[in-house]
Amino acid sequence: MSASTARRKWRIPGAAAFWRLPPVLFLRGFLKAPAMVGSIVPSSQRLIARVLAPVDWARVRLFVEYGPGVGTFTRPILDRLPADAVLIAIDPNPDFIDYLKREIADPRLCLVRGSAADVEQIIADLGHDAADYIVSGLPFSTLPEGVAARIAAATAAVLRPGGAFLVYQFSAKSLRWLAPAFPRIDRSVELWNVPPGFCFFGWKD
Asked: Which residues pair with 65 in a beta bridge?
């Protein structure tokens, strides 16, 4: 192998490309707004599988994701989503929205910069009346006062009967904001994650 070939093979990404790498972008998002990002590292495949396990994919027409970040859950959701369904991903961080627009070319994905607390208005503006499932890793315990309760209430209002709010957290305290909006909540824990993830599935009966 020539020296020039070796240099090409081991070339270090330029500054602009480096800052767009998913782990770096995820860390930047955490440092910029730690209250809005639940963990300093993306979720494990085991946690993703556990969170999405309750979904009846055949009945899904509208799936909503709060805080997609660098697409750790977005891609697995799209892998499972029916061809005629839609995924609306809502994130307040423009860096994450811009990254996902560049990296995921899927007509079923609709990216919205905004707050999960405004989910009712967001899906109405996009021509939908209700969601089948909503997934969230937003850290309820560190959100500004009152925001977690608003998100839980808005989510319960916008779900179809039989739908569920799929929540993964890194603190069991988050249940206190979910319980008032969801009388029936299934719970589990995924230990193969850093940190271990608490899963809460709030059902709209």
From this structure: 89, 135
Could you tell me the CATH number of the domain that includes residue 167? 3.40.50.150
Number of structural domains in the chain: 1
The Cα-based distances of 166 to 19, 89, 114, 155 in angstroms read 31, 14, 19, 11
What pTM was computed for the model?
0.82
Question: In angstroms, what CA-CA distances link 19 with 24, 37, 95?
Answer: 6, 18, 11
- Distance between CA atoms of 200 and 189, rounded to whole angstroms? 9
**In terms of residue numbers, what domain contains 199?**
3-203
Model confidence pLDDT, tens digit, residues 127-136: 999 999 999 9
The string of pLDDT tens digits covering residues 20-59 is 445 555 555 454 555 444 454 677 999 999 999 999 999 9
